């Protein structure tokens, strides 16, 4: 989900919106306009659509608050958070590593649903205090809803949807929040994160297949409590189940990869004495003397023994062929001030986290300011392939 756009920062955490979010935003607005229009026959069309648009954006603000709660607790526990992304299924906080203990996992996971439940409960109570006793609403909810003004209609919907969001996320299907709570409990009981993740992911996959089967039966006319029936609702439930199943598998694989790389120093898999070039070297010389005939995709740039940057194949591709003889490596390289580096003593799992976080194919391996090697993503993948049997276990 790196194809969207940045909308700003909150508490130093970048907020991003994936393009898929626009699809669900439009669907929510369209569905709300139909719902509000059916309840309030006396509302004019601009009022129906205006209320629907405001409600939709406030709902996603609630989703953002949910994810922000996760992120702030994670940061308080020493876990870096790169960003929060709103996408088709809601939102996700990009935590850079797993929690260090079951207790930290539990707190980070539970705070999101609690935020949604508290927010939803507050809004519902606020509406209740505004309209008086709830007996009439319980006896005839449709009639009671029809008497609400636009503001109270918006608040009661927003409150109920936040309560639903909080409860749904507590379903013990990893990697939903409830699944992470389950994993923290299993982790505390077994003392083994990998085993706890495998069990929690198994529960998540089982629930995912129940959703997929339930969605298919709904599409063929079956009525399921709370979810109802119909082709649209059935396909949506099945789609959510498919996403949950895929996320469960991927989350477990990430933990397995981290386990395999844990305790392995970067020096074990880095490329020692990588080919280097000078900043004054032309692109033509770089291509003919360094790139051709090798599998290297990146070259550290060194000047008088000092690392000044790195040049990659992508940098070369941005230079037109006619300018190769007149363009120097120093003109197109990424300067050292912008580079993420790793030390040879760091764990390979930390190196992989840096590769992923920076979204690059290689990292310079540096000790005391001197270049000692190059950690390439392809080398990490080769290491993992050699340990494929352990990964399958």
Outline of the structure:
With 393 residues, the chain is an alpha+beta fold. It has helices at residues 19-39, 45-76, 102-131, 135-139, 141-146, 150-169, 177-190, 193-219, 231-261, 283-291, 313-317, 329-332, 348-358, 377-386, 388-392, and strands at 5-10, 13-17, 81-87, 90-95, 271-272, 298-303, 306-312, 334-335, 341-342, 362-367, 370-376.
3D structure, described in words:
Helix content is 59%, strand content 14%. The two termini are 29 Å apart. The longest helix is centred in the first third of the chain and has 32 residues, at 45-76. It has two domains: 5-170, no CATH class; 266-392, CBS-domain (Roll), CATH 3.10.580. Helix 13 links the parallel strand 9 and strand 10 (362-367). The protein has helices at residues 19-39, 45-76, 102-131, 135-139, 141-146, 150-169, 177-190, 193-219, 231-261, 283-291, 313-317, 329-332, 348-358, 377-386, 388-392, and strands at 5-10, 13-17, 81-87, 90-95, 271-272, 298-303, 306-312, 334-335, 341-342, 362-367, 370-376. The relative contact order is 0.07. The chain contains 15 helices and eleven strands. It is an alpha+beta fold and 393 residues long. The radius of gyration is 26 Å and the shape is elongated. A four-stranded mixed β-sheet has the order 1-2-3-4.
Question: What is the strand and helix layout of this fold?
Answer:
Elements: E1 5-10, E2 13-17, H1 19-39, H2 45-76, E3 81-87, E4 90-95, H3 102-131, H4 135-139, H5 141-146, H6 150-169, H7 177-190, H8 193-219, H9 231-261, E5 271-272, H10 283-291, E6 298-303, E7 306-312, H11 313-317, H12 329-332, E8 334-335, E9 341-342, H13 348-358, E10 362-367, E11 370-376, H14 377-386, H15 388-392
Parallel strand pairs: 2-3, 9-10
Antiparallel strand pairs: 1-2, 3-4, 5-11, 6-7, 7-8, 10-11
Helix pairs in contact: 1-2, 2-3, 2-6, 3-6, 3-7, 7-8, 8-9
């Amino acid at each position: 989900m790196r194809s969207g756009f940045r909308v700003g920062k909150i508490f130093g955490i970048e907020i991003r919106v994936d393009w898929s979010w626009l699809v669900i935003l439009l669907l929510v607005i369209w569905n709300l306009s139909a719902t509000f229009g059916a309840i309030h026959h006396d509302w004019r069309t601009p009022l129906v659509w205006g209320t629907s648009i405001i409600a939709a954006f406030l709902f996603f603000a609630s989703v953002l608050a949910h994810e922000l709660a996760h992120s702030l607790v994670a940061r308080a526990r020493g876990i870096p958070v790169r960003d929060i992304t709103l996408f088709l299924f809601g939102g996700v906080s990009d935590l850079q590593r797993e929690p260090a203990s079951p207790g930290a996992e539990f707190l980070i996971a539970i705070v999101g649903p609690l935020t949604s439940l508290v927010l939803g409960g507050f809004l519902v109570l606020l509406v209740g205090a505004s309209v008086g006793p709830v007996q009439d609403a319980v006896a005839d909810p449709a009639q009671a809803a029809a008497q609400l003004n636009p503001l109270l209609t918006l608040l009661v919907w927003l409150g109920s949807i936040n309560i639903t969001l909080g409860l749904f996320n507590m379903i013990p299907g990893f990697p939903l929040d409830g699944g992470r709570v389950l994993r923290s409990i299993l982790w505390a009981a077994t003392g083994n994160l990998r085993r706890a993740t495998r069990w929690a992911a198994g529960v998540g996959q089982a629930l995912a297949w129940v959703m997929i089967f339930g969605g298919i039966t709904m599409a063929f006319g079956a009525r399921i409590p709370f979810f109802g029936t119909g082709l649209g609702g059935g396909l949506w439930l099945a789609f959510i189940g498919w996403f949950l199943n895929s996320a469960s598998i991927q989350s477990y694989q990430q933990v397995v990869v981290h386990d395999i790389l844990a305790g392995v120093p970067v020096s074990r898999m880095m490329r020692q004495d990588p080919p280097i070039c000078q900043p004054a070297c032309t692109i033509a010389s770089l291509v003919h003397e360094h790139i051709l005939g090798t599998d290297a995709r990146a070259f550290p740039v060194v000047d008088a023994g000092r690392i000044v940057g790195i040049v990659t194949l992508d940098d070369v591709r941005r230079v037109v062929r006619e300018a190769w003889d007149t363009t120097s490596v120093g003109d197109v390289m990424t300067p050292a001030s912008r580079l993420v580096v790793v030390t040879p003593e760091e764990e390979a799992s930390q190196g992989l986290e840096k590769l992923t976080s920076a979204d690059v194919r290689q990292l310079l391996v540096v000790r005391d300011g001197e270049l000692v090697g190059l950690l390439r993503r392809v080398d990490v993948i080769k290491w993992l392939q050699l340990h494929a049997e352990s990964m399958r276990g």
